[in-house]
Design brief:
Shape: globular
Distance between the termini: 22 Å
Number of helices: 12
Strand content: under 5%
């Protein structure tokens, strides 16, 4: 696997994991654009390409853990004392419980449709169509959010369940995980910063689980020794660095500005890629 390809995909993953534009869709597009321009047939991904996707997600997991390290520490500490004292009334303890609930809901929905998600990877034109739908979801969330007079700075049980369902649907490439979870948070009445913060914190258990479980189940050790590890590690490092700065500036952006710019991007990118990959199958 070429180093240039992994670095490009690291940049794409770092940007698109936290911006509401679907990292999985952009990894599909980047990989397949590369194949088209190199005159390589768009076929099933190799195990090395699939493993690279996992490692790039691990890079962005490192970014979100570093950025939210204080929040994570406070949540874990509050959960520990809540379990010890059997009192879950403290704010961070509740948040920890809601993250666990949201994660369970995500897994329950994502597992049955995982095969569909894997199949879509080889159909980038369809992924473009799902990205268009993500754009409309972002438009609608902004519209509803402006209509609400009361907005909450902490999620409740109902909101955590709804956001968990949104994250489960986002296993489909083209359905942006951050886009659908933040949009659902806005639908459900969370303020902008809280919706984004909860979305990023909720991503941690899922990405961590996928990064640990997939290699144990599907990666053959002998085959893995043949991978271009220098390229994979470089891509992972790039993903982590770009991801960290993306979170930093996106949190500032969302507190002041609309998501509509990302909605327009999703629609236009979705139309372009659907047409492009329909022509260049």
């Amino acid at each position: 696997m070429p180093i240039l390809q992994t670095i490009l995909m690291g940049i794409v993953q770092g940007l698109s994991e936290f911006l509401p534009i679907s990292s999985s869709a952009h990894l599909v597009f980047t990989s397949n654009f590369y194949k088209v321009f190199k005159n390589i047939e768009i076929v099933q991904q190799s195990n090395e390409e699939i493993f690279l996707d996992i490692m790039l997600h691990l890079g962005t997991l490192i970014a979100v853990i570093i950025f939210f390290r204080k929040d994570i520490w406070e949540i874990c500490k509050s959960l520990f004392f809540a379990c010890k004292n059997k009192d879950f009334s403290e704010k961070n303890a509740k948040l920890g419980i809601y993250i666990i609930i949201g994660t369970v809901i995500t897994i329950a929905l994502a597992l049955p449709i995982d095969d569909v998600a894997e199949h879509l990877v080889y159909h980038p034109a369809l992924v473009g169509g799902l990205l268009i739908l993500t754009g409309f979801v972002l438009f609608f969330s902004e519209y509803l959010s402006k209509k609400r007079t009361e907005k909450f700075d902490t999620p409740n049980l109902k909101q955590s369940i709804l956001i968990g369902l949104a994250q489960g649907l986002a296993v489909l490439p083209g359905f942006s995980r951050s886009g659908w979870t933040i949009a659902t948070g806005l639908f459900a009445g969370l303020n902008r910063e809280t919706a984004a913060r909860y979305s990023f914190l909720l991503s941690i258990p899922i990405i961590l689980g996928a990064s640990m479980v997939y290699p144990l189940i599907k990666i053959d050790v002998k085959e893995a020794l043949t991978y271009n590890w220098i390229a994979i590690i470089l891509g992972t490092i790039v993903s982590a660095i770009v991801g960290y700065f993306c979170i930093k500036y996106f949190m500032k952006f969302i507190s002041k500005f609309s998501l509509n710019i990302f909605a327009w991007y999703c629609v236009l990118m979705g139309v372009f890629t659907s047409v492009f990959f329909t022509i260049f199958k």
